[in-house]
Amino acid sequence: MTKEKTMIKKEGSQRITFYAESPRYWTDEPLHCEDWSRDYSIMEHHELKTKSGSAAALLRYLLRFGDNKKIINALKDNYKSDAHDYDNALSYDRSRKEWILWTWQPTWVGYDGDVHNGHWEEEWAFCPNIHDVDIYYLAVYLSDETIGKIAQKFMTADIKIMSYSFDYYGVVSFSAEYDHKSEGICWLEKDQFLKFSGCSEDYWNGNSLEEIEMWLIDDLAAWSKGAVEYA
To answer: Do the Cβ atoms of 159 and 188 come closer than 8 Å?
Structure first.
């Protein structure tokens, strides 16, 4: 997205138009961005070529930074619970010697008026020991809703994530909250950032993504409103 700024001299005799590139093109900060707005973007050229199809797809990819043990346990607990915090659950079938991934089918009423009560429906079955199961590969079978919830709760300290969105005029706003419906998601990966910045691990652990990238976030917000710098 290239911003245009038009200025007029006091006497009104001349109109000058400035074209400004995104501040992300002025820095090699290892901030990653993907967005899905029809009209606006803060992605770099290489990101545009490789971006995910949706926020949910990106979060599936980022689950490689998820806490595998906690996610598996949450899905196992969800099968036993009446609350059904997630659309998916895990259980072990001793007779089949298989782990089963379930998808919750809510109660619905058929055309004939018959009520079909909510129930778990088998989505996928696999044989490996549960300790060998990587949630990154299991994620393809999880619903977008489940992906969004577990990504919010079970990411490790190896990644920091925020969302962003655009208003009608392309002004970008950032938020600490994100989900599978986000218009844009940005993130920092710990190893990349520490290698790039030379900062300590304590600095990484003690600051949010917004605090670490405050200057860039502020510059992006100002640029999206039409602010430009020129000599």
So the answer is: yes
First to last CA, the chain: 22
DSSP state letter for 67: -
> 0.90 cut: is pTM over it?
no
Closest CA to 164 of 123, 120, 108, 218: 218
Is pLDDT above 70 for 59?
Answer: yes
In degrees, rounded to 5, the angle at the alpha carbon of residue 85 between the alpha carbons of residues 127 and 116 is: 85
Residues 201-227: pLDDT tens digits?
999 999 999 999 999 999 999 999 886
How many degrees, rounded to 5, is the angle at CA 16 between CA 14 and CA 20? Answer: 175
Q: Are the C-beta atoms of 203 and 188 separated by less than 8 Å?
A: no
Which amino acid, 205? N
Q: Which residue has the higher pLDDT, 166 or 128?
A: 166
Longest dimension (CA), the chain: 87
Q: Rounded distance, CA 129 to CA 211, Å?
A: 41
User: What is the C-alpha to C-alpha distance for residues 119 and 146, in angstroms, rounded to an integer?
Assistant: 17
Q: Which two tokens stand for residue 11?
A: 């006497």
Average pLDDT of span 124-142: 85
pLDDT attached to residue 178: 96
